[in-house]
Amino acid sequence: MIRRNDLVKIGKFNKPHGVSGEIQLSFTSPLTPLTGALDSPPEGGRGGAFLVCELDNIFVPFRVIESRFISDTTAYVRLKNISSDEAVRPLVNKDVYFDKRATVIAGATANPHHENLTWDYFLDYTLFDKTAGEIGKISAVDDSTPNTLFIVETPDDELLIPANTDFITSIDEKQKQIHLELPEGLLDLT
Questions:
Q1: CA-based nearest residue to 33, from 136, 109, 138
Q2: pTM of the prediction?
Q3: Which residues fall within 8 angstroms of residue 102, CB to CB, at 6 or more apart?
């Protein structure tokens, strides 16, 4: 069973596109990391991301079988078992979610079963730097600029740390920890 607490809202379905069940998906914000999650599965293959919508007070997953981005905030998607304009109409104006239990930022973990997601997934994770040790807990994410930042609460202050997969060395989802190798001097700037 899918619960609301397991989901992260990523956008909204808009109008149908064409007559073969394709629908326009608008993202809440530009989600460059999401592009990999919506890649179509290999021809004849399994896979593809699941998008979740609430229908009649039940969260229903839909497998993406085809997608194409038309901008960094909009894509056209086709969902499994939806092949007509009539079949896709109940999804118009519905919020779209990702199940955060099955998703993590691309490249942030070695687990091949994870899909891509926004940085909000890591709220309440504790950051550790290879040199400095424990930094603090992520209390918010600032994605108002092109460089997304973790807002980290420390015992003394609030720090802004770049949310960048290049700095992440490992993620422990059970312990809710992110281990980083930050560039020398970065913590002195914050």
A1: 109
A2: 0.52
A3: 50, 113, 114, 115
Task: Report H helices in 64-153.
Answer: 85-88
Tokens of 83: 């092949």
Is 121 within 8 Å of 103 (Cβ atoms)?
Answer: yes
The string of pLDDT tens digits covering residues 75-125 is 899 999 999 989 999 999 999 988 765 544 433 333 333 444 577 778 899
DSSP letter assigned to residue 122:
G
Sole residue written with tokens 């608008």? 26
> Which candidate, 160, 162, 166, 142, places its Cα nearest to that of 29?
142
The set of residues, in sequence order, having a beta carbon less than 8 Å from that of 95 and lying 6+ positions away, is 9, 11, 12, 53, 54
Rg (CA), the chain: 18
> In angstroms, rounded to a whole number, what is the distance separating the alpha carbons of residues 189 and 16?
48
How many whole angstroms from its chain centre is CA 153? 23
Q: Are strands 149-153 and 58-69 parallel, antiparallel or unpaired?
A: unpaired
In which element (H, E) is residue 34 found? helix 34-37
CA–CA distance, 126 with 123 (Å, rounded to integer): 9
Q: Which of 147, 146, 145 is nearest to 167 (CA)?
A: 147
